[in-house]
Amino acid sequence: MRNLSDQEIIDSVRKGNDSDYSIIINRYKNKAFSMLKRMLKNEFESEEVLQDCFLKAYNSLNAFKGEAKFSTWFYRIVYNTALTRLSSQKRKTETEMISVEDHFDLESEYGSDEIERKDVNQLIQDTIHKLPERYSAIITMFYLSEMSIEEISEVTGMSISNVKVMLHRSRNSLRDLILKTRLTEELI
Hints:
Blueprint: H1 6-14, H2 21-40, H3 43-59, H4 70-96, H5 100-103, H6 112-117, H7 120-130, H8 133-144, H9 149-156, H10 160-187
């Protein structure tokens, strides 16, 4: 069986071969889940939102015009759904009057011995997880999903120059968090 393009799979699903949609799910579930975990910072909620995103995309396949790549269109659904979920979480948090410190645990959950055992990649993953949602999403899309600045612009709805600024700020925040972690390790 040859490797089908996204458009070929979508055309097949539109013709009534609903089971072909599982190919799309398998193709995008890992990267989308990774982005959601970094934005929502909760694995269970990320799984739930991912299912919603695939359902939204499936129900909107007829609206997909193919002007952009399917991946860009789908990641925009993922990004916007995550932002909506975060917005509702923040409203709920404000309603319950929970402090920011209680809602976002910014302290390191690792002892110095554990950090020493982790490899650099894991430290970076953990640090990305601590970034603000939009920064972690930009870092994830650019470095882990290997999306171009233009694709990120389409997904987020930001201008290309704003994406570049956000990427720069995200990198700086990531660097600062890593340096803070290393300084904390040295002090301990």
